[in-house]
Amino acid sequence: CMISTLFNEALYRPLLNALVFLYNTAAFADLGIAIILLTILIRLILFPLFYKGAKDQAIIQRLAPKIKEIQKNHKEDKQKQATAMMELYKQHKVNPLSGFLLLLIQLPILIALYWVFLKGLSEQSFNILYSFVSRPDTLDHYFLGLIDLSAKNIIVVVAAALVQYFQGKLSLPKNNKPTKDLSPAERIGRQMVFIGPVLTLVILYNLPSAVGLYWLTTSLFSVIQQIIINKRIMKREL
User: What percent of the chain has pLDDT over 90?
Assistant: First the structure.
């Protein structure tokens, strides 16, 4: 199948080779450190996309009162409402679909990483290593000699969920309004702060902790990114 071949050659094989290369060179033969380094490398490569998506979502959260006002003023005319909303987004240089587009870009990478962590670290998978990547004599599945990354680990899962919750809280504007006064967009934003971590717990619970370590690292990266975004938005508002 052409799609399967493209997926393997464009994502799965390069990510597997990158992980083994990092394990052999920069990670001191520690699989956990190799996963963390690979995660940081992926986030740095995709940083412009992640940054744009997160920034747009943060600005849209802050535009919620104006969006609510537009919906109220043009509730009888959906076309005028849509035009006014698009004008508001254009004025603030945001794309309301950026979060969805970012998810679409992330999904194939997440699937490829899932396969790398789940089945890729075996003797058989080493047959697809590039010629310049050395085949490791042995592959230690432990992180810092403490966590077996081939097995599930509740501590890693809970840590990943907590960091994701913290990142979600950072993405919301400070708002003391009661729930009944919130716009639909504001309500969804608040709910997602809790729904995201719960989904993380459910999804990661039965997966190898290698996947959880990736998720924890990428969430920590997102927290740092969100802090930078919030500072820049605050400067712009001032």
Answer: 30
Residues 90 and 59: their CA atoms lie apart, in Å, by: 12
Question: How far is the C-alpha of 238 from the C-alpha of 236, rounded, in Å?
Answer: 5
For residues 66 and 88, the answer to whether their CB atoms sit within 8 Å is yes
- The answer to whether residue 238 scores a pLDDT higher than 60 is no
- Name the residue with tokens 């052409």: 2
User: Mutual orientation of helices 47-62 and 31-45 as an angle, nearest 10°?
Assistant: 70
User: What is the pLDDT confidence band of residue 182, given thresholds at 50, 70 and 90?
Assistant: low
Q: What is the helix (H) or strand (E) element at residue 148, kind and residue range?
A: strand 147-148
d(CA 159, CA 197): 10
- Confidence at 185, pLDDT banded by 50, 70, 90: low
Question: Residue 128 carries which DSSP code?
Answer: G
Q: What is the pTM of this model?
A: 0.83
What does the pLDDT read at residue 161? 94
Looking at 29-141, list the stretches that DSSP marks H as alpha helix, in order from N- to C-terminal side. Answer: 31-45, 47-62, 64-73, 78-91, 98-115
Inter-residue contact 55 to 102 (CB < 8 Å): no
Residues listed for the chain = 238
Apex CA 202: angle with CA 195 and CA 225, to 5°? 55
